[in-house]
């Protein structure tokens, strides 16, 4: 198993988890809907890096019940899993087993992201909050 010297962030889902170690995203658990980002729906019992994001410096992650969001240092936001209620933001696939880059309609760089089953919230470098998904659950 990989040796993780530091874990910068840890997120726990109902049946899966994600964390950042040395600026790389790792996932394990139930792979339903492609939520782990490994290109399939398989379960992973040992954490492994998200291969599609190895060239990105991951600085923030967020888990919903059926999706994962990964934020790179350059402000790019990646999503995988099930895009229920529009949590992948705009013009995004319904489902993706590998991370897809989400085009954000924002003027400023995103510095953190939060999500649940129905809403995604992005905070930009000016501390402005932007909410997407099902309006009834928005901030």
Quick rundown:
With 139 residues, the chain is mostly beta strands.
Describe the protein's architecture and organization.
By secondary structure, the chain is an all-beta fold. It has a single domain (9-137), classed as Regulator of chromosome condensation 1/beta-lactamase-inhibitor protein II (Methylamine Dehydrogenase, Chain H), CATH 2.130.10.30. Helix content is 0%, strand content 47%. The chain is built from no helices and eleven strands. It has strands at 9-12, 16-21, 24-29, 44-49, 58-63, 67-72, 77-82, 95-102, 110-115, 119-124, 129-133. A four-stranded antiparallel beta sheet has the order 1-2-3-4, with no helix packed on it. It has a four-stranded antiparallel beta sheet with strand order 5-6-7-8, with no helix packed on it. Strand 2 and strand 3 (24-29) form a beta hairpin. The protein starts with 8 loop residues before the first strand and ends in a 6-residue tail after the last strand. 35% of the residues are buried. The model has no long low-confidence stretch (mean pLDDT 88).
């Amino acid at each position: 198993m990989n040796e993780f010297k530091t874990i910068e962030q840890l997120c726990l889902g109902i049946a899966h988890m994600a964390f950042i170690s040395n600026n790389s995203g790792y996932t394990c658990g139930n792979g339903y809907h492609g939520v782990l980002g490994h290109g399939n729906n398989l379960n992973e019992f040992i954490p492994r890096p998200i291969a599609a994001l190895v060239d990105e410096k991951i600085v923030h992650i967020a888990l919903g019940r059926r999706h994962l969001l990964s934020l790179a240092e350059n402000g790019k936001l990646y999503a995988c899993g099930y895009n229920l209620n529009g949590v992948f933001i705009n013009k995004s696939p319904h489902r993706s087993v590998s991370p897809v880059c989400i085009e954000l309609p924002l003027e400023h760089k995103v510095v953190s992201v939060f999500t649940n089953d129905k809403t995604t919230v992005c905070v930009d470098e000016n501390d402005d909050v932007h909410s997407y998904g099902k309006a009834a659950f928005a901030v």
